[in-house]
Amino acid sequence: MQRYYDLLSEEQRGPFTVIVDKTWEDLHPNDCFDESVTDIKDICRKIDSCDLDWFMLRVRVLFEGHELAAEHVGGFLYEDAREVLRDGTAEDMIESATAAAHTAAAELFHKLQRLDEVIG
Predict the structure, then answer these.
(1) Are 59 and 99 spatial neighbours (Cβ–Cβ below 8 Å)?
(2) Residue of higher predicted confidence among 118 and 111
(3) Comparing C-alpha atoms, which of 65, 62, 59, 64 is closest to residue 96?
(4) Distance CA 72, CA 2 (A)
């Protein structure tokens, strides 16, 4: 099954392109909340009627179109998914993915140097 993503944000941060997007959540809300959430039926009704957005969030960090790192987190419930761009949620994921991209870029750089020695 192919998964489709809706773009929430795309921006340049230094040498990296940071993309924040979302896709549907595979898990049913019943599987994510304990019995203390008494209005789960109402929540499901609001999700089904698009009054609430139930989704997985993905942050990707790219360099020159090549993905170096990504973060995925599911189980988000918002009235508007774009709230994750303002409440710090996406920013935390961006920081984590960017740190991973720095590490991946450094590792790739060293591998390319070794490759250059072999073919150069």
Answers:
(1) no
(2) 111
(3) 59
(4) 16
